Amino acid sequence: MLEKIRIFSGNSNLVLASEICRNLGVSMGKANVTTFSDGETQVEINENVRGMDVFIIQSTCSPVNVMLMELLIMIDAMKRASADRITAVIPYYGYARQDRKVAPRAPISAKLVADLITTAGAHRVLSMDLHAGQIQGFFNIPVDNLFATSVLLEYMKKNYMNDTVVVSPDTGGVERARAFGKRLGAALAIIDKRREGPNESQVMNIIGNVKDKKVIILDDMIDTAGTVVHAASALKDAGALEVCVCCTHPVLSGPALDRIEKSSIKELVVTDTIPLTDAAKKCKRIKVLSVAGLLSEAVRRIYYNDSVHSLFI
Question: Among this protein's residues, is 193 annotated catalytic?
Answer without folding.
Answer: yes
